[in-house]
Amino acid sequence: QRLINRVDPSSEAGSWQEWARDLKQGNTKIMNGMCQFTTICSMTLTINVVVSLMYTIPQLHQKVNFDPIFGVFELVCNIIFCCEYAVNIVGGLPGDIFLRWRIIDLASIFIGVFSSICFFSGSFKAWRLSNHTAFVWTALLQLSRSVRIMSLDRWSHEVAVVKSSVASAVPLLILPVFLSAQTVLTVASLFAFSENLEHRGQRHHFDSLPKSLYWTSHFIIGEWPIVDFSHMGSNLCILTCIFG
Description:
- The protein has helices at 2-7, 9-25, 37-55, 67-90, 100-120, 122-130, 132-143, 156-197, 209-220, 231-243, and strands at residues 29-30, 35-36.
- It is mainly alpha-helical.
- Strands 1-2 form a two-stranded antiparallel ribbon.
């Protein structure tokens, strides 16, 4: 059999594919039989999401520079994600590379490379820390990998239940969503109209429809950060409290 594997390339490729499938199915154990490969990948993904959340806490960066530690951790996680992606591709079917979760896995690897550059590049790190928008977007990219948790076998049943529940509820929610959106748009338009008509009150907060939608979303849920309105706006507030 060993001689056949040396002579026949397809036989060697088949053995690699079988080995990758054994890793995916948990038939092959590593670390002296203590852990399965899929378990290590799942734990790495979960810990990576938690650490990425911790990195967004501003207090961690005030006294101690944790960027080198986070950078090494991100690099190790990305290596494990690369191994997981390779195992999924080698142990899968030829068209698996175009599956939704494989595309998300590949995007996760690119995010890890980008994050490592953020941690180890001095100029890029200084730009990211000085620019709040860049810091927020890089943190969102790191946290976007939490979507991959839904592809884990541990949560497959829960994900299937949620999908079936949403699919069955969507037809029943079309009319309520339409009415809710229409109510918010109508109230926001009336606030913008009333506050700009009398040229007093809170006109600077309602000089555009997006601003009016922002404040109306507060009013609809019962929060009133603005209390001084025009006469027409005050009447609209009363109607919103009663019927909103």
